[in-house]
UniProtKB/TrEMBL annotation:
Residues 1-141 form the UspA domain. CDD domains: USP-like. This is Universal stress protein. It comes from the Bacteria. The lineage of its organism: Bacteria, Pseudomonadati, Pseudomonadota, Gammaproteobacteria, Candidatus Competibacteraceae. Pfam families: Usp (PF00582). It comes from Candidatus Competibacter phosphatis. Belongs to the universal stress protein A family.
């Protein structure tokens, strides 16, 4: 039913994956799906932002994040699950949707937290993904 599952995580927030990962692995095994794990870092190549950081800061951050993502997957995802590692740069919800479209994901599984006052005014990433992605999204509350 689902061939490609996108799983966005924040490597700095265990709550973005700890309660969701068992479900993701179950889905991948049940449907023999490919798993695409994506983490998004800020885009430091924009002139306004980049001028405040050392040269090549953005490239080093992407390299370090890629190493951390590989280590995360090696530690937490069973070897029988086919996994693609993705480090994207930009606005979190936009990059999640862009990557899902690029790989042809037919399902996004992601964590959400209990809404806080600020979330009703701005909206969390999970809500934005649900609203803007044109395929299935499974949001697992923490």
């Amino acid at each position: 039913m689902y061939k490609d599952i996108l799983f966005p995580i924040d490597l700095n927030q265990d709550s973005s994956w700890i309660n969701v990962l068992p479900s993701v692995i179950e889905y991948c095994k049940a449907f023999n799906s490919r798993l695409h794990v994506v983490t998004v870092v800020p885009d430091f190549s924009m002139p306004l932002v980049g001028s405040y950081f050392p040269e090549n800061f953005g490239n080093k951050m992407v390299e370090d994040t890629n190493k951390r993502l590989h280590a995360f997957i090696k530690e937490h995802v069973p070897s029988e699950v086919h996994v693609q590692h993705i480090v994207a740069e930009g606005v979190v919800y936009k990059e999640i949707i862009r990557m899902a479209n690029e790989i042809g994901a037919d399902l996004i599984i992601m964590a959400s937290h209990r809404p806080e006052l600020g979330d009703f005014l701005v909206g969390p990433n999970a809500e934005r993904v649900v609203r803007h992605f044109n395929r299935s999204v499974l949001v697992v509350r923490n």
